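Entry for the shared binder. Reason: the reviewer on the internal report wants the predicted structure included alongside the sequence.
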Amino acid sequence: MEPDPKKIQVLLAEQNQALSKEWGEALKSRDCEVSTAGSLEEALKVVEQVYFDLVFLTEDHEPSRRDEFIVHLLELFPDSLVVVIAPTPSVPGAVRAVRLGAWDYLPYPKNAQEVIDALARALEYRSWRQAAYQRRREISQMYDVHNIVGKSMPMQQVFRLIHKVAATDATTLILGESGTGKELVARAIHHHSDRNARPLVPVNCGAIPGELLESELFGHEKGAFTGAIKTRMGRFELAEGGTVFLDEIGDMSPLLQVKLLRVLQEHQFERIGGTKTINADIRVIAATNQNLEAKVSEGSFREDLFYRLHVVPISIPPLRERRSDVPLLCQHFLKRFAKQKGLGEKRLHKSVMNRLLRYHWPGNVRELENLLERMVILADGDEILPEDLPLHMAGPEEDSLPPLEEPLPAAEPEFPEDGVDFNAAVDAFERRLIMEALDRSGWVKNQAASLLKLNRTTLVEKIKKKGISASD
């Protein structure tokens, strides 16, 4: 049964069934849809599938498992509010709960009215938080960085880097899969820099044939080649005092790599067919979805250019690693499309949002944007329903993640003639298996643990011990 999108979603993680029933009835009288879980294992399964506005978690669960549950829930849904209910309240207990991210810490309610009061406080806080966030958004609309939608931890790190890099003139390399928003980051850096009064000139190195790209970048003199009927300024000249954004830099030919290296080192160049040296007062921001280090190793990308570009790298996380931003992105795109197309603003059915949260997003933000535009145009009525989703996302069990029973591939061990460091080899193999399981599950640790046939706590301990992170 799909959650009612019009009701407040509440989870009661309480072992006492009588109390759980009493509290649940009280909450239902306040327009809440209530789910219950008698154990943390059951609660973990529930929160993997459904977003909850509020979770009441009793403190009588096993401490380490309870703490793990809070962290896992807030990893999935940072907007959820957790209220820890303590049979015997203590200051250390309250401090620990709040440090883990719980919103409130309460003694056991004496009656159902105290549960209602806790709900009211939570809803008041949520309303205040949403208003405060909207105020920050309105203020940030004066700056280009507002075009990058996201409040997840990975994106907060990106925003911090944007502001740090913008304050300098350092060459910047933006890394990320297709559709993650690399050009938006480049524009934000330029907007916040001292060069923002001058132009930002974008060049897609992968979309322009190599023989034309040189002329696009450096310009040419009249008669320099067949068809050069007049002198033409290149992008480096057009961006004088501003910024040149070189997208898909990994597709640049070796010849142009040499010329670009000179621009970065000496800030000088000549037009094609020209002899006059032109000074280039520009900043260069480059971007790629390729592994430039691998291209350096294979000899298709210059090592010295790589290090010139790699002064300050910024990695944009794929959407599957910041799923908590999906609702915010949906809201942003739905408002924009409603305005652009002259349609009433549409909303997503709760089950549609759940499917979007669980999808793997190989095309990242661009794929989400295109999907929402399609559904806004084709959906009947004011609400986008599951039947409006494309076939590969519309199935009742479809979440695009590998089935838990799918085995991980075995690898043949390499055994050098001079022997092998057994402990190091085992550690490397174990690390590879963990990374593979995390990648397949979209970094949902509960599912990764199931793939590896491990207890989730064991997996979390191994991840910490090996220092594994999503950036590896």
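Summary line for the report: The chain is about 45% helix and 15% strand.
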